[in-house]
Design a protein that fits this description.
- The complex is a heterodimer of chains A (about 550) and B (about 1050).
- Chain A is mainly alpha-helical.
- Chain A has helices spanning about 1-25, 25-30, 40-55, 65-70, 90-115, 120-140, 165-185, 200-220, 225-235, 260-270, 280-285, 305-310, 355-360, 395-405, 415-430, 440-450, 455-470, 475-485, 515-520, and strands at about 75, 145, 160-165, 245-250, 275, 310, 325, 330, 355, 385-390.
- In chain A, about 45% of the residues lie in helices and about 5% in strands.
- The termini of chain A are far apart.
- Residues about 1-5 and about 5-25 of chain A have low confidence and may be disordered.
- Chain B is mainly beta.
- Chain B has a 22-stranded antiparallel beta barrel.
- The relative contact order of chain B is 0.12.
- The chains are: A mainly alpha (about 550), B mainly beta (about 1050).
- Chains A and B meet through helix 1, helix 2, helix 3, helix 5 and helix 10 of A and helix 1, helix 3, strand 28, strand 29 and strand 30 of B.
């Protein structure tokens, strides 16, 4: 028995030895991911922030311009948004909201703290400018935003929303600080990691100043407007003066990794989601087909049309489908015809007119059309190498013109308006394979100015905002804001057009819905917006 | 420490009793069935603790103390015998099987065999033959309808596609809810690795278990979660355990020295639920032909009493590809254009098992091959297994054994995903709802020059299904090697040490490809490679003891140490732009990019023990506990303990009820707590390098510039393990000399402090907070009824086995203030599986239409259609109310006829296939269309979403007529409708399995080399009825786009289920 007992004891020792391993801490200390860094640097965070902002606000699937371009009648889509409907989980909102907040703005906060700590003033200024811009657009869309309590993680997981009227002055402060920071000596230079300006701090300074004016312009009906500040900014400068000063992102040609313009990918590669709103087309055409047509530019055909829209059809080519919106090679669907128009179920992928070279890096319309649909061609047109233009030079100049006209700010509104139109055409020429003919441009501008010069203030405002609306095709959030502020351009009324396929009984959305999934899990968030509730600057 | 003391006590007791010696008795124990020797039989002197066990030859030798008069021979599964010693010195015994089913032997934890009657919790023992010879390659699907307490859902008709199994509901909010699979003592990784999101692409991938060949399964022990036995398996046992013992893992000596068993099966498979299509109207809308998807166009000549068109223009794509073709084609229906797309599939299944050896050593080896071709062209599944197992008893009381197995599995399938996903190339994007005038078989699917797909609608809408099946697809190859070694040493006849170490390793390669010219990836072609390497090491050391204190009181106990390490390394690459059309190799692409990789390693150390006390033959008390140390938890909380206690009481024996009606009866009760750890690397927020954003419009590097972004998950530094507590009570009753039996189990479990990502609003700067929160409860009942209503003298018998499973799985609460978390993001703004407090697990949240306060639908006065509500709501619950199975078996002489009938009641499924069939007007459900309809409801205001009132303040009933086309295309009930209208009750009745077998009589075989021979004819899924889906859709609601994942109740254009007819042969010699 002794032997047995000895064996038992031995085995207990063995057990004890193995169990003892449990206490050996190192053995279990393997819980750090070897393949992902715990920290990063400014030059790696900036490019992500920039692309996320351009994607979330620009045009393409998941960009807010995809939705607002329908509200301002740049484009039309099949779907409930075709008659001003939006849901709080609508794809664009569901994509843009989290990408802006927990993506771009969170990374911007990291940039701000890192850049401050490292006294990297130029990165700090860029981060402040991007933050101010992004918040201003968020206020413009949603009226409110989580500003003061944003981004605190576990410390404050459920921030409340702040009034736009309270956020706007903070943004002015941020932009002013950014300008100061751009003026400082910074040890760490910004380089090609800055996808917008390639590290050119002078251009960032111009943008920050231009955005200060933009924000003042948008609050011109409120008591936040500050004429002295506006004139001081104009006097001090520097302000954008060249087309290359614009706040825009040029996409690439690679499809792996996908670097092409999102709108190009959407409409040339994937599923042709966008139609051109016939109203937009007809206004540019100077046509007067419809009773509700806007006569402002009647008879003036816009030379930008072949750059803006690409017709897949050619030579009045017949196509099989019941068509309700076709002029020549231009084929589209009506706004407010969803579930009514008999062409609803028709496949128009090979016949519909597409967004063209200018807004999407797509194709220039040479009138020859394309057999078998554009998807059959590899890399049609610019192949996706196009700009997403969030605040190009013309937008700045139209803003200046509006400030001069409406508030008497420095500058002559007619001069600025004409310069803005010229900048609009220059913008088209930036990438166009065929430049706009100077004679056509001059003729167009001449005709518009001939109507502008004798017009009264209200009519002039309509010209400025209508031209701005035309120029901004591709980025529609500012146009949506301008329309709500000013009532211009005149929008299409489907109920007075004698068109049996267009019926509208829904009100115009005066602000966008919050992202439902985000507010239902946040007890301190506001209730879902009523789409007829206004943003603070909308007091016309 | 308590256990250590107990062992000392046992030890002393043994010393005291071993002193009195008197005389020696020896003998041999044999089987009453066939006279073979029975090793391992307990021989005890009645009234003492003196005893021994028989050796491999069935022999024993025992010293009987002076007062000993009777020997008790016992062996689990055999009827115990008491034999007077008298003056004899040699006692030979022949033991017969114990007919009482209560005495089944089950493997609880770690290879420990326990008499079923001693267990205080429910364990189901399924013999391998139940899942063999049934024309089913997947061992889980073969189990459907046969066992209570399991919920098995097959995902699709693609060969080798995943099968989801859950037991007693879901416990983890977002993590794994499938049971732990243990094969021959070693955990078996059952992960489903999807290279692409199955919503938008990828395919119907399989899970790990499909690599197991049912032919090699000896037994499957099913330990439901909460059972005290399962708890011993450690953290992964929270969801229950399926313990599979293979034939090679239990190799035992054959009677003949060498036995060869061969089984061979062949089955044909066909699509099981083809809808009834209308063949009256072709494509178009408003009774006018056009080249569109929907069949709402002109009627076909002869189908209606009025004139219609007779020819139509050749389809655009085809005309472009074949300019010489006649510009028109006849306008007619092609009634079989869908049916003819599907092939007749085949399933070949062959297996050879060799076993042999002598009384000291034996071995078993199996080689098997399964070869399946699916109903979709080019889809298939191949499986090759080679395994060998051996055991040996060495002279120095050491037993040594081991198994080694190699599995190769190749699954090839068509591209999947929802048809409306951008850039998707699914073969099923149109096939179940083709235009009725589309001559799919007669027209070409390929442009002979460009090799592009040609179809009846534009290529941007859909690839031709034939093109897609031929040129696009996915393939998974898995090579898995499993090996384990075990040693045993008997210190004495009551104390034994065993050690088992096992390694499983597999390399899995997933490849997905789209050739240029289809709809997918913009038509440029793409190849995705995904390499997975996984290694698991499991070590288990156990000291096992038994002791008889007195005649009435005995004890079985063990302590054990367990170590487990799992390492997973995954790396994927994506190549875009195929250079040569025919080569599927990533080298044949124009650009290759990394597509994400994951590396994880985790370790777990556990110490566990169990004590089982037995009083007489009828009262058993088992207490066990386990402490784990996990590498995935913070240091402060990485060690955690969880106990279990259970009791079993055979009241018929205790009360000596000698009733013929109630033959035996057992009551059991158990309480357990099981802990669970986290997944690795959750304790830090990382920066993602070259991140992928939600819309993925733009990917990094962007024009050569790399980027990073801070991760969206906030970690919780104070993460603690999650725990599940379960109470289980049950009874097992046998009636009428075991002619009938009833087993009922009720349980209630609560999982608290679940480890999961709590959704944070993005305004917090993050998306998720990884922490402990939420309570999930499961309550349910499992009933098994068995009986033999007829048993005649001539050998005819009729057996019935019925089972019933009901589980209610409720999310009790989430974190404070959190009203919802999302299980898996699907199409934004569309239907989504979510968890909400107070609702069942994984309910479906989707868009709905506006209603008034009385529930009337609001009607848009402009269109006569519905009004979309701004707020989504819960529109479905995927959990079935109950599952019932009924097996009838008839036996007569060598013939056996059995039929398994299965009934799933309730649960909901969201189906895009039905939605599209209605919206595109292709089935008979929408054939009666030459009249208008009024949607019941009241006129509403689209802005306020309130009813419009007339002058007297009354609601205005809708009288606006709409065409049937608009009834299913628009803001109505089909295409473009709110999600709620595509959710259907998934109740289904199914004739799961029918088998007719004939075993040749031994007399006939006597002169042949065969020991036995059986032929079986089988049919699977021969009939089903889903009463609550549109009648003519013939839809089979048992399907799941996301396979074995937690998101259940979704069907995004899945491959439909199949019906199989087979013949199987099995013979030994």
């Amino acid at each position: 028995m002794k032997i047995i007992r000895q064996r038992i004891y031995n085995s207990f020792f063995l057990f004890a030895a193995i169990i003892g391993m449990s206490g050996c801490g190192d053995f279990l200390d393997i819980n750090t991911d070897p393949n992902n860094p715990l920290d990063s640097r400014l030059g790696l965070v900036l490019p992500t922030v920039e692309t996320v902002i351009f994607e979330a606000l620009g045009n393409g699937p998941g960009g807010m311009s995809d939705l607002t371009s329908q509200f301002v009648h740049h484009t039309a889509q099949r779907g409930p948004s075709n008659f001003y409907f939006m849901a709080g989980n609508e794809f664009n909102i569901a994509n843009a909201w989290p990408n802006l907040y927990s993506g771009a703005l969170m990374d911007i906060n990291i940039m701000i703290s890192k850049a401050t700590e490292r006294e990297s003033w130029h990165y700090l200024g860029i981060a402040q400018t991007l933050k101010a811009y992004t918040y201003s657009i968020m206020v413009d869309m949603w009226g409110k935003a989580a500003y003061f309590e944003f981004g605190q993680g576990v410390e404050n997981p459920f921030p409340g929303f702040d009034e736009g009227a309270v956020i706007y002055p903070e943004l002015q402060k941020l932009l002013a600080e950014a300008v100061v920071n751009f003026g400082k000596e910074s040890l760490e230079a910004v380089g090609t990691d800055d996808l917008v300006y390639g590290g050119d701090i002078a251009k960032w300074t111009k943008l920050a100043n231009a955005l200060r004016l933009k924000l003042y312009n948008q609050v011109q009906l409120t008591d936040q407007y500050d004429q002295a500040a506006v004139n001081a900014i104009i006097a001090a400068g520097p302000l954008p003066s060249a087309v290359t000063d614009g706040f825009k992102l040029l996409y690439g040609s690679s499809n792996n990794p996908e670097n092409r313009h999102p709108l190009f990918k959407q409409d040339y590669v994937d599923n042709n989601a966008n139609y051109i709103d016939p109203y937009f087309y007809l206004v540019m055409k100077g046509d007067n087909t419809l009773p509700s047509f806007n006569p402002l530019l009647l008879g003036i055909e816009d030379p930008r049309i072949p750059h803006y829209f690409y017709n897949q059809l050619a030579g009045d080519e017949p196509q099989n489908d019941a068509t309700t919106a076709r002029w020549g090679n231009f084929l589209s669907i009506w706004f407010a015809s969803y579930n009514i128009d008999p062409n609803e179920g028709f496949d128009q992928a090979q016949s519909q007119t597409l967004v063209g070279e200018y807004p999407a890096g797509g194709a220039y319309d040479d009138g020859k059309g394309v057999t078998g649909g554009v998807a059959d061609k590899q890399n049609p047109g610019l192949g996706g190498v196009g700009y997403q233009r969030l605040y190009p030079l013309f937008a700045h100049l139209y803003t200046r013109a509006e400030l001069a006209l409406m508030k008497g700010a420095s500058g002559d509104d007619a001069v600025l308006f004409e310069a803005a139109m010229r900048a609009s055409f220059d913008e088209v020429d930036q990438l166009a394979p065929i430049d706009l003919k100077d004679s056509l441009v001059d003729a167009y501008i001449g005709q518009v100015m001939a109507r502008y010069t004798p017009a009264n203030q209200a009519k002039r405002l309509e010209f400025i905002l209508t031209e701005k609306w035309i120029a901004s095709f591709g980025f529609s959030i500012d146009a949506y804001t301008d329309y709500r502020r000013t009532g211009y351009p005149i929008m299409f009324n489907p109920n007075t057009d004698n068109n049996p396929f267009t019926i509208l009984n829904r009100s115009y959305p005066l602000s966008l819905l919050y992202f439902t999934s985000d507010i239902v899990i946040n007890p301190n968030a506001d209730k879902q917006r009523d789409p007829t509730s206004r943003v603070f600057w909308d007091i016309n | 420490m308590r256990k250590f003391l107990l062992f000392s006590f046992v030890c002393l007791l043994q010393v005291g009793l071993a002193q009195a010696q008197e005389r020696t008795v020896s003998g041999k124990v044999t089987s009453a069935d066939d006279g073979s020797p029975l090793p391992g039989v307990n021989v005890v002197v009645k009234g003492t603790a003196t005893g021994t066990v028989t050796d491999v030859a069935g022999a024993y030798k025992l010293t009987v103390p002076a007062g000993g008069t009777t020997l008790v021979f016992s062996f689990i599964g055999l009827t115990s015998q008491e034999i007077e010693v008298g003056e004899r010195t040699t006692i030979d015994v022949s033991m017969g099987s114990d007919m009482k089913q209560l005495n089944e032997v089950v493997v609880t934890a770690a290879g420990i065999e326990r008499d079923k009657k001693s267990l205080g919790y429910r364990v189901e023992n399924v013999v391998g033959s139940k899942v063999q010879q049934v024309s089913e390659a997947d061992p889980l699907r073969a189990l459907q309808g046969k066992v209570a307490g399991v919920n098995i859902v097959s995902s699709s008709g693609v060969p080798g596609s995943a099968t989801r199994i859950t037991m007693r509901g879901n416990r983890s909010l977002l993590g794994n809810n499938q049971p732990l699979i243990v094969v021959d003592g070693i955990p078996y990784d059952n992960t489903q690795t999807n290279t692409s999101n199955q919503l938008t692409g990828g395919g119907a991938y399989g899970s790990g278990l499909a690599a197991i060949d049912p032919n090699n399964i000896e037994t499957m022990n099913i330990l439901p979660p909460g059972g005290a036995g399962a708890a011993l398996y450690g953290v992964r046992a929270a969801n229950g355990v399926i313990v599979i013992t293979t034939k090679t893992g239990t190799s035992r000596a054959s009677r003949k020295g060498l036995e060869i068993a061969v089984s061979s099966g062949y089955s044909m498979e066909k699509i099981s639920g083809l809808p009834d299509y209308q063949n009256t109207y072709g494509t178009g809308s408003g009774f006018v032909y056009s080249q569109v998807n929907g069949s709402w166009g002109a009627p076909f000549p002869g189908a209606v009493p009025y004139p219609t068109i007779t020819e139509i223009p050749l389809w655009t794509d085809i005309a472009a590809a074949f300019p010489d073709r006649s510009p028109t084609v006849p306008y007619k229906a092609y009634p079989n254009n869908i049916k003819d797309f599907f092939n007749t599939g085949h399933l070949w299944d062959n297996s050879i098992t060799l076993s042999g050896g002598n009384d000291k050593s034996n071995f078993t080896t199996t080689i098997s091959r399964t070869d399946q071709k699916g109903i979709v062209p080019e889809s298939g599944f191949e499986r090759t297994n080679i395994s060998i197992g051996a055991n040996s008893i060495l002279a120095n009381k050491v037993t040594i054994g081991g198994t080694m197995s190699f599995n190769n599995k190749v699954q090839t399938g068509p591209p999947g995903g929802a048809s409306n996903a951008i850039g998707n190339g699914s073969v099923f994007s149109r096939i179940m709802y083709l235009g009725r005038n589309w001559d799919l078989q007669g027209e070409p699917f390929e442009n002979p020059l460009s090799r592009q797909s040609v179809f009846f609608v534009a290529r941007t809408q859909s690839t031709n299904p034939y093109w897609s099946a031929k040129y696009d697809g996915f393939e998974t190859t898995e090579n898995r090697i499993t090996g384990n070694l075990n040693f045993g040493y008997d210190f004495t006849d009551w104390l034994n040490l065993s050690y088992r170490i096992g390694v499983t390793h597999f390399d899995q390669t997933n490849q997905e490809w789209y050739r240029p010219g289809g709809r997918a990836v913009g038509g440029v072609g793409q190849i995705t490679d995904d390499f997975v390497s996984f290694t698991e090491i499991e070590s288990f050391l156990m000291l096992n003891a038994s002791h008889q204190f007195t005649e009435d009181l005995s004890l079985k106990a063990f302590v054990a140490h367990n170590f487990n390490q799992r390492t997973r390394d995954q790396q994927s690459y994506i190549g875009t732009g195929l250079v040569d059309f025919s080569i599927i190799d990533i080298d044949n692409t124009t650009s290759v990019l990394n597509n994400g990789g994951i590396y994880t390693r985790r370790r777990l150390i556990g110490v566990l023990g169990e004590v089982q006390l037995q009083y007489k033959d009828y009262l058993f008390l088992t207490v066990n506990g386990r402490n784990d140390w996990s590498s995935t938890l913070p240091v402060a909380s990485r060690s955690f303990f969880y106990p279990a206690v259970s009791a079993s009481f055979i009241f018929t024996d205790a009360l000596q009820l000698d009733s013929r009606i109630l033959t035996s009866g057992k009551l059991r009760a158990g309480w357990t707590r099981v802990g669970n750890d986290a997944t690795p690397y959750l304790l830090n927020t990382i920066f993602a390098v070259n991140p992928l954003f939600v819309a993925q419009s733009v990917l990094f590097p962007f024009k050569g510039t790399a980027g990073t972004t801070k991760g969206d998950v906030v970690p919780d530094p104070d993460l603690t393990p999650e725990f599940t507590r379960t109470i289980e009570v049950g009874t097992d009753l046998q009636f009428l000399d075991n002619r009938a039996s009833l087993s009922v189990t009720a349980y209630q479990s609560l999982t608290t402090n679940g480890i999961a990502q709590q959704s944070y609003p993005s305004v917090s700067g993050y998306q998720n907070y990884l922490t402990n929160f939420g309570d999930v409860s499961n309550k349910g009942i499992e009933i098994t009824v068995g009986g033999t209503p007829v048993k005649l003298e001539n050998g005819f018998s009729w057996d019935i086995n019925a089972n019933f499973t009901h589980n209610r799985n409720v999310v009790k609460k989430l974190a404070d203030g959190v009203e919802e978390i999302v299980i898996q993001n699907l199409f934004s703004g569309g239907i989504t599986p979510v968890l909400r407090p107070g609702t069942e697990y994984g309910v479906l949240r989707g868009t709905v239409n506006a209603r008034d306060d009385e529930g009337n639908l609001l009607i848009d006065p402009a269109t006569g259609q519905l009004i979309r509500s701004l707020t989504p709501e819960i529109v479905g619950n995927p959990n079935p109310d109950f599952i019932a199975g009924l097996t009838n078996t008839f036996r007569y002489k060598g013939f056996t006829l059995s039929a398994v009938f299965n009934w799933r009641q309730g649960g909901d499924i969201y189906s895009t296939t039905i939605n599209n069939q209605l919206g595109r007007g292709v089935t008979k459900d929408t054939e009666q269309r030459e009249m208008n309809y009024v949607i019941p409801g009241v006129i509403g205001d689209v802005n306020s979403q309130q009813p419009v009132l007339d002058d007297e303040g009354n609601k205005i009933p809708n009288t606006i007529q709409v065409e049937m086309n608009d009834l299913y295309f628009g803001e109505t009930f089909g295409t473009n409708s709110a999600d709620e209208w595509s959710v259907f009750d998934a109740t289904v009745f199914r004739l799961q399995e029918v088998a007719l077998g004939y075993t040749l009589p031994k007399a006939i075989l006597a002169k042949t080399p065969f020991g036995s021979a059986t032929i079986t004819l089988t049919g699977r899924n021969l009939w089903y009825k889903a009463p609550n889906v549109p009648k003519h859709s013939k839809f089979d609601p048992e399907t799941s786009t996301f396979g074995a994942n937690n998101a259940q109740g979704f069907e995004f254009d899945n491959v439909p289920s199949v019906r199989r007819y087979g013949v199987n042969l099995r013979f030994t010699f």
